[in-house]
Amino acid sequence: MPPFLIKGRYGEPILTRIYNNLPVDRAINGGFGRNETQLHFHNAHNGAESDGAANVHHFPGTFYDYRWSTTLARRDKINTGATENRASGPDGNGGLVRVAGDFRELQGTMWAHDHRFFFTAENVYKGNLGMINYYSGPDRGNEVLNDGINKRLPSGRLLDYGNTDFDVNLVVSDAAFKPNGQLFFDIFEIDGFLGDVPLVNFAYAPQMEVLPRKYRFRILNACMSRFVKLALAKPNGQALPFTFIANDGNFVVNPIRNLTALDQQGVAERYDIVVDFSAVNGLAIGDKVKLVNRLRQTDGALPGAELSLSQALFGDSSDPLVGPVLEFKIVSQVNSVDVPGVILRATDGDPSQVPTVLTEQIPVVSPVRTRHVEFDRQRDGSGGDSRGANGECTPDCPEFAEFPWVIKVNGESAHSMNANRISLLIPKPGEIEHWTYKGGRDWDHPIHLHFEEGVTIDRGRDSIPNTERLVRKDVWRLRPDGEVTFQIQFGEYGGSYVNHCHNTVHEDFAMLMRIQLLTGITGSPQTAVTPTPNPTPDGVFFTTPEILPEADPNFDGGHRS
Ligand SMILES: [Cu+2]
User: Pick from 424, 434, 428: which is nearest to 555 by CA?
Assistant: First the structure.
């Protein structure tokens, strides 16, 4: 079964009802996975109760309604009257529905996945994930509609919006199998889980037929722990250059052309690229192009060496994930996915464009406050403090698990995940902050901040690639002993969100903290911290969360500013 793809558009909210039809008996899970779920819509601007990560998992025999509002960020500050044509979604008839908010914050390539605390890796690995594309005025998913707003990126022309004939989601992951063909997973491994079988859209070594023209690919790393570095190889083994257009669903201002490899890509990062399979790149019908992973990884905690394309094409004896993961075959005609029965031909031509400007830059300004967040491992072996005095977790966790992965805010004490504890608090919407994430020397972490994207400013003493510099992201690789600084602004909604490592094994063991957003709006329930929901099969009871000193927004390493 391939992962699902949901097409959303600005101006049309989505109600998604998730039924949990899993068996009630936990013992028949095949050795891993929890029969409880909350579905996180990765970084869409939704209210906390619909973010799928507020300790709101539900049980077999129940459903949960997620209100995916398609909110465009800054709707409370910028373009509040919805007069800007670029802040819009397709109306289905060639026109646009304008929405309030900042068009520079339009999102495109996103995904959704299980987020049951302490069991996320197991449940995602079992297949509870899919992709969600948001379509907008500029990013219409229609390559011929010419209204001065639409960027006409490769996509197709048969549907008003959301064409996928030439705009294809690629979910890259790794898996391991038992002799009986069932998935294997090691629930006792805490550094990270690496599979030995590469998958694209859950298929092993797939081949995709393409026409000799431009395609857009939306590439998601959906591994549990693995980093990848992808490149394209022509039949002669040379790199096929491509154009980078979006990072984590956010357009770069100017497309970055003639790349011969992507940056390393951590779990949950999305890279959108445009590839031209035509004679422009010396390709012809019958040629085959390979998508190749060039990054060796044999340790769950961090990646190893980057191999050259020619080395990687031959595979690597220490890592079966190095090498081709997907083959493209250039053909003269394909069947349309968007309108079954229609034949698309090489002779149709390629009306798509990759314009030199895709969006405008959000300026970096002096922040109202700064925050410093360290992602670390308890070196004394004492473990984190996910368990309370009686050995219980909130929510319940595996019986014998210990929790070495911890998070520190502004130099205060280190903590592992507890859904009833607030580690960081945003006092009111609209204030611009600068955050610095810091990693450790023996590992790399792809860190995900829910709900808002940050403008990536700086990587300390490391170089910052063009695909990240001043680019909006929602997942940052820290790199071994590295750090990254970004500008962030919260708005629109209050409530309980999280910040965590997206190496899902680290996340489960329990590198995750709760963040509280307050709205300051009189009459709103989010003027105060949110009581913690504690779901049970018989209903929900609420508890009052512990608030750490560093969740005082002005508390900075021992002094109050
Ligand atoms: Cu991590």
Answer: 424
pLDDT grade for 561, boundaries at 50, 70 and 90: very low
Measured in Å, residue 507 CA sits from the centre of ligand 1 at: 7
Report how far residue 104's alpha carbon sits from residue 218's, in angstroms, rounded to the nearest whole number: 19
And the tokens for 9?
Answer: 């558009």
CA distance 155 to 216: 7
- Ligand 1 centre from 468 Cα, in Å? 20
Q: What is the mean pLDDT of residues 106-111?
A: 98
Residue 414 Cα to ligand 1 midpoint, Å, equals 15
Confidence at residue 400, expressed as pLDDT on a 0 to 100 scale: 85
Which residues are placed with Cβ below 5 angstroms of ligand 1, an ion? 445, 501, 503, 506
Q: Compute the distance between CA of residue 52 and CA of residue 322 in angstroms, rounded to an integer.
A: 34
Q: Could you tell me which of 135, 108, 104, 88 has the C-alpha nearest to residue 43?
A: 108
Q: How far is the CA of 465 from the centre of ligand 1 (A)?
A: 21
Which residues neighbour 389 within 8 Å (Cβ) at sequence distance 6 or greater?
none
Work out the pLDDT band at 559, boundaries 50, 70, 90: very low
C-alpha of residue 505 to centroid of ligand 1, in Å: 8
∠86-251-201 over CA atoms, to 5°?
120
pLDDT digits (tens, 9 = 90+) for 312-323: 999 999 999 999
Q: Compute the distance from residue 108 Cα to the ligand 1 centre, in Å.
A: 25
